[in-house]
Design brief:
325 residues, alpha/beta, five-stranded parallel beta sheet, two-stranded parallel sheet, 12 helices
Length: 325
C-alpha cells in the first residue's frame, strides 16, 4: 500500500468513526429544545387537558393573540374555547411544524382546534440577504486581487466549516447537559416570563412606533399595496402545511391557518384546495384598523391595543366560519 493510499484509508476510518459516534450520541440523548419552547411545552404537558385550542406561530401571534379575550369572544358567539398561545419568537416554518409534532405527542385529550400561522418556508435568499452576503464577502467591490484572496480563503475554509457545522448540529453533545439538574432548572428559569402574566402563553406587546418610523411604515405600506398580487405558496411550504393539517386531524383536532396583519399585502394561496380554513388579515384596505400606526410597533407587530382588536376579530371570524362554513 502506498503512503497516499494509507492516508486515504486513515481519513476514511476517522470519518466513519466520527459518524458512528455522532449517530450513537444522536440516538441516546434527548433533543435540545430552546428555552422558550421548552418552558411552554413543559407547562402545556402538565396542563394539556385543560386546553382545547392552541395557537402556533411566530412573535406576530405570540404578542397579538390574547387567550383571555379570544375565549371571551368565542363564548359570546356560542363556541366556548380554552386557549393556550404557543407563539414563539422566530418560530417560522419549518420549525413550527416540529413544534406541532411535539404538542401532539403530549396526547392532549380535549384538543379541538390548532391555529397555525401561515408563512412561506424560506427556501431562497431575499434580495436584502443576497446584498448583505455580497457586501460581506466582497466589501472591496470587484478588485481582482481581493477576489483571488477571498476565493482561496473560502476554498480552504469551506470543508472545515461544513464539517464543524455537521458535527455541531448532528451530535449536539450539549444535549447531555439536560441530564444535570442545575441545567434543567436554568432552562425553565424564565418560564414565568415566557408564559405571560396569565400563564396562557401570551405576552404583552410594546409601544407604538415613533413618528419617524410611522412615516417610513406608511411609505412601505403604500408600495406593498401597489405591488400586491395573489401568490401561490411554494411547493415545499404547500406540502408541509398539508402534512401538518393531516397530523392535526389524526390527533382528533381541526387545523386553522392564520395570516397576521403584516406589512406584506400579498395574498397567499394554496395550489389546490386549502387543507384547512385560511384566515388572512394582511389586507390594509379590508382591515385598516390594524394598519393605523398608532396600533403598530413595527412592520410585523401590534401594540397591546392593536393585539386586543386583532384577537377579537380573529375569534369572531373563527366563530363565523364554524357556524357558517
Amino acid at each position: 500500500m502506498t503512503p497516499l493510499s494509507r492516508r486515504i484509508v486513515c481519513v476514511l476510518i476517522a470519518l466513519l468513526a466520527f459518524v458512528a459516534t455522532s449517530a450513537l450520541i444522536h440516538a441516546l440523548l434527548p433533543p435540545m429544545i430552546p428555552k422558550g419552547v421548552a418552558a411552554k411545552l413543559k407547562f402545556f404537558a402538565e396542563h394539556k387537558d385543560e386546553f382545547d385550542t392552541v395557537v402556533v406561530g411566530t412573535s406576530r401571534l405570540y404578542y397579538s393573540v390574547s387567550p383571555e379575550i379570544f375565549d371571551k369572544v368565542t363564548r359570546e358567539n356560542r363556541l366556548p374555547t380554552r386557549t393556550f398561545n404557543f407563539g414563539i419568537d422566530g418560530m417560522h416554518p419549518p420549525e413550527n411544524f416540529y413544534l406541532i409534532e411535539q404538542i401532539l405527542k403530549t396526547n392532549p385529550r380535549n384538543l379541538k382546534w390548532v391555529f397555525v400561522e401561515a408563512d412561506n418556508i424560506q427556501t431562497r435568499w431575499t434580495e436584502r440577504t443576497a446584498l448583505t452576503m455580497k457586501k460581506a464577502l466582497n466589501p472591496r467591490g470587484n478588485a481582482r486581487w481581493f477576489i483571488k484572496i477571498t476565493r482561496l480563503w473560502l476554498a480552504r475554509r469551506d470543508f472545515i466549516s461544513n464539517l464543524t457545522l455537521f458535527g455541531k448540529q448532528f451530535t449536539n453533545v450539549g444535549r447531555g447537559m439536560d441530564f444535570f439538574p442545575s441545567h434543567e432548572r436554568e432552562r425553565f428559569i424564565e418560564a414565568d416570563s415566557e408564559l405571560g402574566p396569565n400563564h396562557d402563553g401570551y405576552r404583552l406587546a410594546g409601544d407604538a412606533m415613533s413618528a419617524e418610523r410611522a412615516a417610513i411604515f406608511r411609505q412601505k405600506l403604500a408600495q406593498e399595496v401597489s405591488e400586491a398580487r395573489p401568490k401561490f405558496l411554494d411547493p415545499a411550504t404547500d406540502q408541509a402545511y398539508r402534512t401538518a393539517a393531516a397530523q392535526i386531524r389524526q390527533a382528533g383536532a381541526a387545523p386553522v391557518f392564520v395570516v397576521a396583519p403584516i406589512l406584506s399585502q400579498t395574498t397567499a394561496r394554496f395550489r389546490e384546495a386549502p387543507p384547512a380554513p385560511l384566515l388572512s388579515f394582511n389586507d390594509s384596505r379590508k382591515y385598516p384598523e390594524f394598519y393605523d400606526t398608532k396600533v403598530r410597533i413595527d412592520d410585523a407587530h401590534l401594540t397591546r391595543e392593536g393585539a386586543e382588536q386583532f384577537t377579537r376579530l380573529l375569534a369572531q371570524e373563527f366563530a363565523r366560519r364554524v357556524h357558517q362554513p
